[in-house]
Specification:
By secondary structure, this protein is α/β, with parallel strands linked by helices. The chain contains 3 helices and 7 strands. The protein has a single domain, classed as 3-Layer(aba) Sandwich (Trna Endonuclease, Chain: A, domain 1), CATH 3.40.1350. Helix content is 29%, strand content 31%. The chain has a 5-stranded mixed β-sheet, sandwiched between helices. Strands 5-6 form a two-stranded antiparallel sheet. The longest helix has 20 residues.
Length: 137
Amino acid sequence: MAKMIDKEPKYEGEKKVWHDFYKNLPSDWVVYNTRSINGREYDFCVISPNMGLFIVEVKGWNSDGILNVINANTIFLAGAENPEDSPRGQARGYWFDLRKKIQRELGMNLLVMSFVCYPFISESEYFAKAPQTGTGP
């Protein structure tokens, strides 16, 4: 069981991922959630000893709620007037901010990776929503 630093999140998607991390990651892995970097709040930062850091952006969407995926930067959800920004771009922004902060404040170059997690969408549902370019939501 991973060491969870912060309390369980309030959103259902993040809550599910929080519990999955807790139950399934090794006990020497550390998980932070809902923290800010440069004024932007990430969902999870997972620290893996001897490996690096993982920034995880969680989208609690279900496949029925995704109306149209034009491209990675234009995703229309049910009930929303405007398209959603790219979850990958969001995760990548947190990745960049965290990497720069570590370099600036600690003088270290750690491996930092970014991911997007859709806890309520299956792999087949994900690819069914992906545009022909092969980039998913």
